[in-house]
Amino acid sequence: MIKWIALGVLAAMVLLFMFFPVVAWIIIGLLLLVILLVLFVPVGADVAYVDGEFSLAARVNGFAIRLLPRKPEDPNKPKKKKKEKKPKEPAEEKPPQEDKPKEEKKGGFKLDFTLEEIVELIKKVIHGLGKFGKITVRHFMLHYIAAGDDPYQTAVTFNYVNAALSTLAPVCAQKFRITGDVDVWTDIDFARDKMKVDAALSATLRIAQFVHVGLAVGFGVLGILIKNRLRLRREAREEKKRQRREAAGVAEPELDNQKMIKAEERKETHG
After folding, report:
1. Least buried of 28, 147, 203, 260, by fewest C-beta within 10 Å?
2. Are 161 and 122 in contact (CB under 8 A)?
3. Cβ-count burial of 42 within 10 angstroms (0-12 exposed, 13-18 middle, 19+ buried)?
4. What percent of the chain has pLDDT over 70?
5. Average model confidence (pLDDT) across the chain
6. What is each CA distance from 1 to 4, 6, 7, 57, 258, in whole angstroms?
């Protein structure tokens, strides 16, 4: 269907150029003008995660469109009647089957990021977002309370988060154009069992920037994912080697000596 519509539009443009070239150029000029205006329309999003609730709103040319959470249904609105289902005939009882142990699925794409990789990933995203023009930030809020069962680990995490924020702050100031308020603070609470994070962001950019930003962020994140995948494979190979050594009961120095002896024997044989 789309193919025939495109062919029809193309044929109409050819006929216009043949018989009414001025009209054809006017139409093309108007189309280019509309596309140019659309590309410069500011669009964005309002994202928030506060008190365990997630909210999302799309922003187009200054107007916000609420997406999540959805508005509650009107209780006065009449509900549609469901069709009554016919009663199913009782199926024949099958003999009980023995429960087979479930086999673990092999393969898949597993990710296990370290804290350093998470910070590097955030840097790549920020650099990509600001590479092709500054994104306008209307509001940003981040409240973090470190907590946990282990006081030492809680203190370490709290210091690491503060260090990461100090590292990212100048990058954000360089890459973003901040027009609204910024509310960032961190705290530590040894009496709590779980950490608490509240965050909100309202940002806009032009449609023309989306393509450039998407390519920049995509390639940057892809590099981090490839490095992460290679690291996990290397760690898995080292773990398998260690398990084989433990199963064979051979220590690492003895295994290295055996390899050296075999290498010398091969040299003498080919020598």
Report:
1. 260
2. no
3. middle
4. 70
5. 78
6. 5, 9, 10, 34, 70
